[in-house]
Amino acid sequence: MSMSFEQYMSDMVQPMRNELTSIGCVELRTAEEVEEKLPAAKGTALVVVNSVCGCAAGQCRPGVRKALEHEVTPDHLFTVFAGQDKEATAKAREYFAPFPPSSPSIALMKDGELVHFIERHSVEDRSAEDIAADLKAAFDRFCR
User: Fold this and answer.
1) What number is the average pLDDT over the span 26-40?
2) Which residue from 49, 87, 91, 101 could staple onto 105, CB 3.0 to 4.6 Å apart?
3) Contact residues for 64 (Cβ-Cβ < 8 A; gap 6+)
4) pLDDT tens profile 81-126
5) Average pLDDT for residues 34-46, to the nearest whole number?
6) Catalytic center residues
């Protein structure tokens, strides 16, 4: 019995997707979904660029989960998956200028405008608790 590469990758990344969808993040899997949801998201929106790397597993996703336990949170939660949903990720990154493509990364938007961004280099050398604290401070500033 053989399995296609696409099916193998889908099976491998599903638990990584579930880490974010289980806490309320809506997956945007196509460029059209990104274009439909991000500009229309009134108020604040958190967009997590998910990834298969170790810093996504050890710091980014756990940091987001901890941050969302805060009393102040964004109105909308979204995620795109770098390397998997390539067109959706590319479209989402258009909203993150002037920052270069980075995964994992976390964007906080307010009424369609980027107001806070955590790049990969600010994920990989920090703990989940540090990332959560950074996000909570941004939530307090922009989501009230």
Assistant:
1) 97
2) 49
3) 20, 23, 25, 46, 48, 106, 131, 132, 135
4) 999 999 999 999 999 999 999 999 999 999 999 999 999 999 999 9
5) 97
6) 53, 55
Nearest of 23, 59, 58, 26 to residue 41 by alpha carbon: 26
Closest CA to 61 of 1, 128, 117, 138: 128
AA identity, residue 60 = C
The region, left, alpha or beta by phi > 0 then psi within -120 to 50, assigned to residue 24 is left
Q: What does the pLDDT look like over 124-142, one tens digit per residue? A: 999 999 999 999 999 999 9
Count of other CB atoms within 10 angstroms of residue 112:
12
The type of residue at 109 is M
Count how many Cα atoms sit within 13 Å of the Cα of residue 62 in the half-sphere of its side chain: 12
> Containing H/E element for 36?
helix 31-37
Cβ atoms < 10 Å from Cβ of 87: 14
